[in-house]
């Protein structure tokens, strides 16, 4: 349950940075509006008196054509969408110089995809928004200038003006900087609760702090680094493997169009690191070659023990890869 105060607090807090959306600009809506990320940008642009352009469904070509024909200044895309747009065979034929802000979030953006997108949209400032529906939805922002600092570009940014963010241990005590714990968030943007579920609400919101279920750490400059969903952490041979880290390495291989790393039951290791890979059109690579690519860039226990090739990955309507579905189908 989100109040008007919740959603306006988040929108005004993001706009207060002066770098979130273009005041009076033209915002392209291509992500589903039942998902709060797109609805939140609609509210923020509405506050600035801007123009809204709606597409009935996402297609890479449709996004590019709309940017050109409507002189779009701002767009929100999830990383899966960004990858498909910049990978469109006809992408280079479109003049996308009108775009001033590309807001992304919803899942981790592989560094290779981010670099390619920034090169394709050279006039756009990239803004990563981290949060969740229960936070209406923004907790932290990685602003355009932060993307130019290599050690910050992979982070989720700093707490937005309306938000307080901590990283805590299981007992709720804040952990030292650099230590991994659960990300918790407080502020007037925290939800009123889960409808008809008081026990779940009490478990999620404790002493005013929303427990996100995300594992992360805070660096010395106050930048949050989200390493994985706690439920997606793979425990193999008593070592923790953050699946998002392996995702990012695999995504950097030129033959990989998409990938998802999950943990599967293993009699010897408890869980094994398993990669589901979608190859780029016309590309060819073997499982051993991909494992070798990872071995050159990761500790040995993080390298996928098994690699599976698939035609596509299951995604939600919001564009997130459904890792739980992948795990359930293979257990």
List the helices and strands and how they pair.
Blueprint lengths: L3 H12 L10 E4 L6 H13 L2 E4 L5 H11 L3 E4 L1 H8 L14 E4 L6 H10 L4 E7 L6 E5 L7 H4 L4 E2 L4 E5 L12 E6 L11 H7 E2 L2 E10 L5 E6 L3 E4 L2 E4 H9 L4 E11 L3 E10 L7 H9 L10 E4 L13 H8 L1
Parallel strand pairs: 1-2, 1-3, 3-4, 4-5, 16-17
Antiparallel strand pairs: 5-6, 6-7, 8-9, 9-11, 10-11, 11-12, 13-14, 15-16
Helix pairs in contact: 1-2, 3-4, 4-5
Compute the CA-based radius of gyration.
20 Å
As residue ranges, the low-confidence spans are none
Query: What's the main sheet like?
Result: 7 strands, mixed
At CATH level 3, the topology of the largest domain is Rossmann fold
Brief descriptors of the model:
alpha/beta; five-stranded antiparallel β-sheet; seven-stranded mixed β-sheet; 331 residues; Rossmann fold; GMP Synthetase, Chain A, domain 3; 3 domains; Luciferase, domain 3
